Known about the structure:
The structure is a single chain. The protein is mainly beta. It has a domain at 4-8 and 17-157: Jelly Rolls. Helices cover 2% and strands 55% of the residues. The protein has 1 helix and 14 strands, in the order βββββββββββαβββ. The strands form 2 sheets. A 7-stranded antiparallel sheet has the order 6-5-4-3-10-1-12, with no helix packed on it. A 7-stranded antiparallel sheet has the order 9-8-7-2-11-14-13, with no helix packed on it. β3 and β4 form a beta hairpin. It is globular, with a radius of gyration of 16 Å. The two termini are 30 Å apart. 37% of the residues are buried.
Amino acid sequence: MLFTFLICVLAFANHATAVSWYFLRYYPASGQKFTSFSGTMTTPTQPKAATIYVWPGLQPTDNSGVYQNVLDGRSGTWWIGSGWCCANPSLPWGSGFNTYPGETVTFKNTLGSSAWTSTLTRSSTGETVSNSFALASKSFNQALFAIELYDVAWNFGQVAFSNVVITSTGSSDASWCNSTPENYNSATVYSITGVSATVSGNVVTCKIASVVLQRPA
């Protein structure tokens, strides 16, 4: 998996002409960093095998890579796993499982004392995989909901996330949660509902009932 993602997003700075991007991006308030990112993703339809990656992810301040939970459509059957793309540091990709259109997969990414831990659960069967990644030194300041396409159109319907919870630490400023996320190149028609923020000390907890990437703009 890691080799495949060598052409993934690295600060979204260099885009191959064959790549189409659709993503929403949240930034925390100044001086804050993200410390957890969780939610449920509904597996979309898949008309054929294609190089399609659908993922929630976190990107650090140094733009050295992206920490992702990736639905991979290359085989014609969706496979999901977690990992860091792609170097600095070089880490092995995590384990995963197949998932099918209409199923839901919960994802939970949490910062611990020495590593980030990702847990994925296939709701229909209870199958769970958990992996840790040595990324505790990274300061993540971007939370993304992304569709990444190589030589294929967005023809598989909407991508829906629900029960999203994102936490940040560093100050009590919760304004980022209620702000409109960046819509890269205004490329995506999307909807967001049920946003609320709570603050405890310097920890902001942002809850979003639904994030739906509906179709290309």
